[in-house]
Amino acid sequence: MTALHLADEGEAADLAAFLSRLLHYDRGAAVRLQAAGTALAVFGRPPSFEVLAIRSARLAKPYENGLLVTLDVTVSAGELLESVDESAGTAVVPEAVTGPPWAGVLPPRGGWRPEAGLPAPDALRAMVSTAVREFRSRTEELAPERRTRAELDRIGREIWSRTVGDTPLPVRAVHAAQSLGFLRTARTTPGAPEQATPGLFSSGAWLRLRTPYGSIAVRRAGLGAFDVSVR
After folding, report:
1. Do the strands 2-5 and 30-36 form a parallel or antiparallel pair, or are they unpaired?
2. Nearest to 117 by CA among 205, 207, 193
3. Which of 59-63, 149-153, 192-196: highest mean pLDDT?
4. How far is residue 98 CA from its own chain's centroid?
5. Residues of the chain with CATH 3.10.150
6. What residues have CB less than 8 Å from 161, skipping those under 6 apart?
7. What does the alpha-carbon distance between residue 213 and residue 196 come to, in Å, rounded to a whole number?
8. Residue 68 contacts residue 56 (beta carbons within 8 Å)
């Protein structure tokens, strides 16, 4: 098995936290790993949100000590989490698994352009809190005979499909970012560089909410299977 040497303990801890959150929503979750040079990308799909979550990590040295050697494999998120050694800053790549359908269709690597209109981080977090309260309130008001899975799903789709401000980004993407820890408040120390704020980008049929802690990618509403990278 191949060892990944992460840049430091913090990178290892963040990777472990991301995997733990994915497993919270799906105990059998799989992740797709892509590594080239000193960059590692981990792709996952929390089923509750219908989005792709991407966590990037820095490696201490080029993968397999060669700039021309790359990694591209789908593995068990649980097995990868078990292999993470935070104190050593390492992880072991598990044996490959048969990937779920989403693992073969990823957002494009390039061509991303900024989209205007994304609210500030505090406003995004408040938006999610308001939506969660609305969902709970509306579902609690349902008569027992109407409290069916179909009705709960209908209310959820109505709320989470709304768009964020003047952007085409659905609220469910922001909810996913909040739930996976991507919108957490940055810890700052005196003299440390200011953390980048979340940004919204688009490429073809895809939208990407990028934060300092990870990204959420989602297909634009109403578009079919166009402009995707199958790899």
Report:
1. unpaired
2. 207
3. 149-153
4. 21
5. 3-104
6. 170, 171, 172, 221
7. 10
8. no
**Structure-token match 């949100």, residue found:** 49
SS3 of the chain: the string is CEEEEECCHHHHHHHHHHHHHHHHHCCCCEEEEEEECCEEEEEECCCCCCCEEEEEEEECCCHHHCCCCEEEEEEEHHHHHHHCECCCCEEEECCCCCCCHHHHEECCCCCCEEECCCCCHHHHHHHHHHHHHHHHHHHHCCCHHHCCHHHHHHHHHHHHCCECCCCCCEHHHHHHHHHCCCCCCCCCCCCCCCCCCCEEEEECCEEEEEECCEEEEEECCCCCCCCCEEC
Q: Which CATH number fits domain 3-104: 3.40.190, 3.10.150, 3.80.10, 3.30.1370?
A: 3.10.150
**Residue keyed to tokens 């840049």:** 7
- CB-CB contact of 109 with 122 (8 Å): no
Residue whose pair of structure tokens reads 């693992």 in the numeric block: 103
Could you tell me the pTM of the whole model? 0.87
For residues 97 and 76, the answer to whether their CB atoms sit within 8 Å is yes
Q: Please write the tens of the pLDDT for every residue from 35-77.
A: 988 999 999 999 888 899 999 999 998 877 666 678 999 999 9
